[in-house]
Design a protein that fits this description.
This is 2-(5'-triphosphoribosyl)-3'-dephosphocoenzyme-A synthase. Its EC number is 2.4.2.52. It is an enzyme of class 2 (transferase). The protein is an all-alpha fold. The chain contains 15 helices and no strands. The protein has one domain (6-296): Triphosphoribosyl-dephospho-CoA protein, CATH 1.10.4200. It has helices spanning 6-12, 14-20, 39-63, 68-80, 90-105, 111-125, 128-140, 167-173, 178-185, 188-202, 207-222, 225-231, 233-253, 255-269, 274-296. Helix 5 (90-105) packs across helix 6. The model has no long low-confidence stretch (mean pLDDT 93).
Length: 297
């Protein structure tokens, strides 16, 4: 399957599958909106993004990886951003774009190889152009917590560009955030979620239940940095502890019972684990790639 860019479309289906998951602790589902964002918004975003990811894969397959991530961000800025008010799932797109390039370059469709190639592509083939486009996108998506940088990185709202670093350094400097850290370190949490869900599917569980349990595991072990940004460290710690309780409940009483309990707590507080959901969306795409590959073999 080396260079099989149909897999980029399969990967993108994870961005549709994630909002379909229900019930879910915060976030958008077919039956629940969040922060003015609807299920339809996420489906439209995933549809538009799917075309761009397939295009990025083909471009990398024909011409190599240099400049592809910048080019696909330019198209995202031009074709996707104007369709929405605010940030719908840019974090998911950030994570999927390097993987789409990796699909074109990798000799295997195994997720472990794809994430390694994606990480290598970021470090070898991106620079300041990708960072400048990243800032432009986030300014257009404002308000978005994803671009509220502090310390060595200029805040997106500042409007300044002089101190914006090359993309790999930008990711490292903001690696306290889960999405940036995944890109900087080779998708470690994404792989955890993928492997957990794959094991559950092999045990006979439904894909939906497997991914919901993977989400609980991510929240229990890593928390959610969007909750930290919006509500502070105390809320972050409380959310992680409640997720740990829910994960233990799921092992005894089932994942739907645990998720329903956590959903009642978090939706009432307006807690949305958006960073963890971005990661689970990508893990969903990797799971779909594996399922489709195994079904055709």
């Amino acid at each position: 399957m080396y260079g099989d860019c149909s897999l980029a479309a399969t990967l993108s289906y994870g961005a549709v599958l994630e909002p379909y998951l229900h019930p879910k602790p915060g976030g958008v589902t077919p039956y629940a909106s969040e922060g003015g964002k609807s299920f339809g918004d996420f489906v439209l975003h995933a549809t538009l993004s799917s075309r761009l990811l397939a295009w990025a894969c083909l471009k990398a397959w024909k011409n190599g990886p240099i400049g592809v991530i910048a080019s696909v961000k330019e198209r995202y800025l031009r074709e996707v951003v104007p369709r929405f008010k605010g940030n719908i799932a840019y974090g998911t797109f950030m994570l999927m774009a390097p993987l789409a390039v990796a699909i074109a370059l990798s000799k295997s469709s195994e997720p472990e190889e794809l994430v390694t190639t994606a990480r290598d592509t970021i470090y070898c083939c991106t620079g300041r152009r990708e960072s400048l486009l990243h800032y432009k996108i986030l300014r257009r998506l404002s308000p978005s917590h994803l671009g509220r940088y502090r310390g060595e990185l200029p805040d997106v709202a500042s409007g300044g560009e002089r101190d914006i670093p090359p993309y790999p350094l930008l990711l490292k400097l903001n690696s306290w955030d889960m999405v940036h850290r995944e890109l900087a370190k080779g998708y470690p949490i994404t792989l955890e979620a993928y492997r957990h869900s794959l094991n559950r599917v092999k045990e006979g569980r439904s894909v939906e239940e497997a991914l919901l349990e993977a989400l609980l595991k991510v929240l229990a072990e890593h928390g959610d940095t969007l909750i930290f940004q919006k509500y502070g460290g105390r809320a972050f710690k409380m959310a992680r502890e409640e997720a740990r309780v829910a994960f233990h409940v799921s092992e005894r009483w089932g994942v739907r019972h645990a998720i329903t309990w956590l959903e009642r707590l978090w939706r009432g507080r307006e807690w949305n684990p958006g960073a963890a959901l971005d990661i689970v969306a990508v893990a969903s795409g990797l799971l779909l790639i594996t399922i489709s590959r195994d079904a055709s073999s």
